Structure formats: structure tokens, C-alpha cells
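Workshop exercise sheet. Pairs work together: one partner reads the sequence aloud, the other fills in the structure field after running the prediction. Swap roles for the next sheet.
Pair: D.N. / O.F.
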Amino acid sequence: MRQYLSLVCLLGSIVACSGSASPGDDGENDPPASAGTASTGAAGMPTATGGAATGGAATGGAATGGAATGTAGASSTAGSNATSGGSNGSAGTATGSGSGGKPSGTAGASTAGAGGGPAKGTMPTFKFPTPVGADQKLSATKDVTDFDGKGARFIGTGDLGGTGQDEGQGPLFSIKAGGSLKNVILGAPAADGVHCEGSCTIDNVWWEDVGEDAITLLGNSASNVYRISNSGARKAADKVIQHNGGGTLYVKNFLVESFGKLYRSCGNCSTQNQRKSEFDTIVANGSGEIAGVNATYKDSAKFTNIFAATGMKICERYNANNTGAEPTSAGVGADGTYCIYSASDIFWH
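Structure field:
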């Protein structure tokens, strides 16, 4: 079971974990710590406890097999620790360093799946984090390529001060194709949240009160890849993730509360695409729907380790169009083609 504890490092203010380490990416010139010894990190953006983050080295070694000995970890002001499972060998060790550091090392996929995580069917305890420092106000969309918010809360003002469902609101952040956004809290008002202009990576980003949508995926290339992980959203009257572009979306380790739909493939955009999506380790609290996909355009949505409130819809298929007309339902539930999951993938609570 040790390889599954890595999720807590991803999402919490944990000093050390078991399991081989994954590459760190945030620090510079940090003095190395001894193997398996944790150092105290600077206050950062916790994702599990909501408190000040602590960092340092992770104790190495995977439960079911090893990885190469880790190298010095880079520090992170966000204070999140990432680990992944080892593969097929003797237990390895990781050495790390830095404040709020991410231990690094060479690690393979664990026997339970790449990146480790909790045992299937064990509901993780995700929590919204506490903001770091003073709120940052945005009166105009912030265009970014690779942006680290360092745990701060951002709120809209002026033209971005809307909290409703009006279409056409601007986003607080617009991410250039191939870019990333991490360690950010979006407060209220949040207007239209975050836009990805093409492929993007969203990590440790939290929407406290979704406005129009939390995140909109743009760019019509079928090769687009969007990754959202270690994040969460709540108070979404309608959609959290709006997929207007093409390509494939991966959502992993996500908390959603009080919402309409976690994901919707656009049902009536003037330019339509085939869209694919995969959802892994989702905690959904509310009465909404996890995903809506378009059978018309051969969309697909795959679900693994979903913790859903009783009575919630997991996946609904729609008859979509490109005329702007309201799409109609084509059925609810798994069908193996458009909505892909089995009863063993869903855990009701």
C-alpha cells in the first residue's frame, strides 16, 4: 500500500512519504539533505490540509519494487511534494532538499498505476487550500505562458468582476498554447475563470466560487492535450470544464462540490470536434453530472476511481450540432463506446 501514499504528497503539506520519487521542478541551488530526512519548507500552497506547507526529502523505496536512487530534490515555494511508485526491483531511496521541496529521482510506474495514488476504492481527503499572502486583483485578463501563483488568491474586478452565467465574459487567466498554470486560487468574482488557448497543464489550481465556467479548453487541433491535476472547484451553477476545442483532456485528483457538470464537450459550437477525456480519482460532492459527451461527434469519456454522491449522473451522451441549437440527450450511463466505465470504477458515497 505504500506506493499509494504518494497522492498525499501531491496534495498535502506532508514532510515525507514512502515510494520512489518523481522529478522536482521548482527550486534552485538548494543544499542537499541526507536521505530520508525532511527539512521544513517555507509557507506554500497546501492542497490537502489548508495549512502552511512543509517540504524536504521524501523517504525512498516503493512498496512493490524499487527505483533508482533519487537525486537532490528541487525546492518549491508552493510546497507540494510529488512522488510516484517504483517498478520491478529492490526498494530505492530518495534524497531531497529545499524548502517545500519536491524530491526527485528516477522512478518507474508502480504496479498500481503510474504516479501512485490511493488504493482503488479508498476515497482521498482533498481540501481547499488557504491562500498565501494578500489577494491579487485582476481588472484585465492576465496572459501567461508558464505561471506560478505561489499560492495566492486572484479575484476579478472591473470588467472581470462578474459572478454570473453571462456568456462572453473574459477569463482571469489566458494560458498560451503549450503553457501551464500552477499554485493558484481563484476567488470570487472569477468571471470566466481560466482559458487554455491550446494544449495546457493545470496543477494545484482551485476555484472557490466558479463564475461562468472554471476553465475553457480552446484550440481546434486534434493533437491538443490538456492536463488538469491536484485541483478543485465548487459553486458552479453550470459547468466547471467547458471543452470547445479538439484533442484529449486528462483530469486526475480533482475535488468538485456544488456543481452542474464537471465536464461538458460543447454541444452546439459552430466548429465541432471529436473530443476525448479521461477522469481518474475524482471526488464529486453534489447532485450534478460528471461528464456530458457528444455521441454525434464520437466523443469518449473514460472513468476510473470515481467517488460520486448517490444519485449523481456519471456520464450522459448528447445529440450535438453546430447550429447553436440546444442539444438533446441520447442516453445516460456506460455504453462502452462514448461513456466508458464499469460498476467497479464508481464508488458511491
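Discussion prompt: The chain has two domains: 1-119, 136-348. What would you look at next?
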